[in-house]
């Protein structure tokens, strides 16, 4: 089974949804046969590389009410994050572009596979939400990526060029093709979609259903007239 | 979609089930995307190549009541066959082995594909049930197979040797693995099983369900908290 998760590095519900999916997987008996792959999504492709405002300011500007309103929104989501054991420091965080982070996530997947990519995804989310670091900054990205086991020379080469930019756009287009209006957006075996950070039980149900699909016992319609070793029903 | 049908050439319910499946397929809007493959099953692997008794005698011996009881069983199944437009002449038919017929069905599939195999299957059933011919006899098999478009030299080579014998046994083992207690036994996309000659509506329902499975729209669980272009739900 493969679970693809469309997600952004700066999306508060994405980290929360990641934890809920992980809880469901921890209790899932066939978790060893499940591969999780992270797909790119940019909530705010216009965000700058060098921050110009805090997250609170950005939210207040976007939705009205100013920084104070932004701070209340942050308080709300931090409370939910705390329930999942996540420490958010979004009051310190700054609005930043994520395209380079996503390019590194593609590098991790291509050259290290899903496990390496998963380590980088977790490290990037922690860097932004818990450490309030600028995940657009190349020095930050380099430190986070190498701590997650990526080769420094490849990280540098990707950051210096345009590698994996097309893959990032292709992911975003795929999400739109699936009708995802936002993230996190979970797709299991390209068959089931889960929109948003749903309760653990929802992930559990979808996992069980997808597993049954790929490990079918014949669904039988018994009882028709037939001939067997002991003769025909006549 | 692929429909595999475990079936024997001398099985009265198999020909009836074939007609019912065909009726369902004739009304199925995606029939062009359905492939029907015939799998081997032997109801009576101990039957002789050179017949020693009529079907009526064989039935009477096996279930008691003698030839008269056998004739009543034949009358019953012939009445059902007639409802499907099939003319059975089982009173004239003789008990005969079908392993060579099944080997030719494998030849037809391997070298001519499902359409050729389907033509041979129909011709063999007609030869046995309507024409009361001995489908164990190599001259009969040769005539039937070549009339269905098989190459005479390949038919002769297969009949003279042991080709496709393993494939016949493998089919029978697969049927047992699926829990088929008799034939006809229909398997759609290795997901749905239909045991016996069921009504046309049952085939229609299974076809529709299997089609929906292989042409999925994402089954969505909507409504979780998410972040979109217009912000996060906080």
TrEMBL record, chains A, B:
GO terms for molecular function: oxidoreductase activity. It comes from the Bacteria. InterPro entries: DSBA-like_thioredoxin_dom, Thioredoxin-like_sf. Residues 3-207 form the DSBA-like thioredoxin domain. This is DsbA family oxidoreductase.
């Amino acid at each position: 089974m493969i679970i693809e998760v469309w997600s952004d590095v700066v999306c508060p519900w994405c980290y929360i949804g990641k934890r809920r999916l992980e809880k469901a997987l921890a209790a899932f008996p066939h978790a060893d046969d499940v591969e999780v792959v992270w797909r790119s999504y940019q909530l705010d492709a216009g965000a700058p590389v060098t921050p110009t405002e805090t997250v609170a300011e950005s939210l207040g500007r976007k939705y009205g009410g100013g920084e104070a309103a932004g701070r209340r929104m942050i308080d709300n989501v931090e409370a939910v994050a705390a329930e999942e054991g996540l420490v958010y420091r979004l009051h310190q965080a700054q609005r930043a572009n994520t395209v380079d982070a996503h390019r590194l996530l593609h590098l991790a997947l291509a050259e290290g596979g899903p496990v390496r990519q998963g380590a980088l995804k977790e490290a990037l989310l922690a860097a932004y939400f818990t450490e309030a670091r600028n995940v657009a900054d190349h020095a930050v990205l380099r430190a986070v990526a190498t701590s997650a086991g990526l080769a420094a020379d490849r990280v540098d080469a990707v950051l210096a060029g345009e590698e994996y930019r097309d893959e990032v756009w292709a992911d975003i287009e795929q999400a739109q093709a699936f009708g995802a209006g936002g993230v996190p957006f979970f797709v299991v075996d390209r068959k089931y979609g889960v929109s948003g950070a749903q309760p653990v039980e929802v992930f559990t149900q979808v996992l069980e259903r997808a597993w049954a699909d790929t490990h079918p016992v014949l669904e039988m319609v018994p009882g028709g007239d037939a001939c067997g070793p002991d003769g025909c029903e006549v």
